[in-house]
Amino acid sequence: MRAPALVLVAAGLLGPVRGGLSGSAPRVPALARLLARADRTGRPHGVAADPARAVLEAFGCPPDAEGVAAACAAAEPVGEAAAWLRADPVHLRADHDRLLLFHAGTVGLTPGEAEALAGAAAEAFAPLGARLRVAAPGRWYLALGRPARIRTLPPWAVAGRDVAPGLPEGPEAGAWRRALTEAQMLLHGHEVNAAREARGLPPVNAVWLWGEGEAPHPRRRPQAVWSGEPLAAGLARAAAAEARPLPPGSGAWLEAASAVAGTHVVALGEEGAWHAAYGDEAAWRGWVEGVERAWLAPAVAALGRGALAGLELHAGEGRCWRLTRGGLRRVWRRARASVPGPARRRFGMIWRRLAVRQAAGGRHMAVVESGTLRNQVRELRGRLEALRGYL
Length: 391
Hints:
The protein folds into three domains: 4-65 and 216-329, Alkaline Phosphatase, subunit A (3-Layer(aba) Sandwich); 80-199, no CATH class; 341-386, no CATH class. It starts with a strand and ends in a 5-residue tail after the last helix. Strand 3 (83-95) and strand 4 (98-103) form a beta hairpin. It has twelve helices and twelve strands. The strands form two sheets. Strands 2-12-11-1-10-8-9 form a seven-stranded mixed beta sheet, sandwiched between helices. It is of the alpha/beta class. The longest helix has 24 residues, at 281-304.
């Protein structure tokens, strides 16, 4: 029986953690082994890990794909509409001459509070023909009669930062910004927020718009999608794939998926990306080490014994890592959690010029570049030996 292939979406797994790390990197030997021996595509974009982009990439959507709100709404109990925007509740905190954003998922908003606050904020968007719908306390939607002509940023792109760069841009930005200001005024004096502040809780005093565009069309057609997130569920529906609840780890997943060959997408959600975006190093370390124990270590072991056909990782930072059982045998690629960037760039040419093949105890190297002279090979071997500690 053919083994299943695992596509793991773990946004935030590779950071970047806002403010950097105060100590050493988390101890994650399975992840380090995967990163060292997998084939890699893409390049890091250098900004906050993007959970939505990671899921889109896992489904084979192009880099410029939009329509996250529409894809999410397809899997949520929010009805039908010609177009959608996410309108998530947030807490904005004044900091000198700027406002900092904190997502509602970090402030403990209850379902009753969400319904009451959404009912008030809905008045601000009615003149634009938008109807506010609540799918969950931290996930609100605007049902539109036509697509909004604006450009936005997702909330994790500005989490804990000045919100000004993420406000709507585009031909209709003025109208939508005015609606956001009106929504802030309606939420500011709401009795729910007054009660929250009396209990020492931050008020939910704004709405964050994002996810504009038409629903994306997945190029990958997985056999099944395992997640508790609406974006993955919505893309599963678009790809005609079976949507299943997220299991606790690779072991439980493999038991359920072993009888079904093909590609399986497992999306772990937004938690790690939020920890990284807010610079919560302790929470991020705990989450990363939990993913290592529950998912990566068992998955790499399963790949080694042939129970997995392949392992693919999307961490939301712009790259994709693909590992096969044969790739695990690349023993010359040492599993180091971090490799000095300048050294890797400087001597990357050596790896492109040589194809290393383990044989006779790993002492033989086959040169595949035609016309290479023996003294050039000797020089390259010497450089590789000198760099063994880095590579």
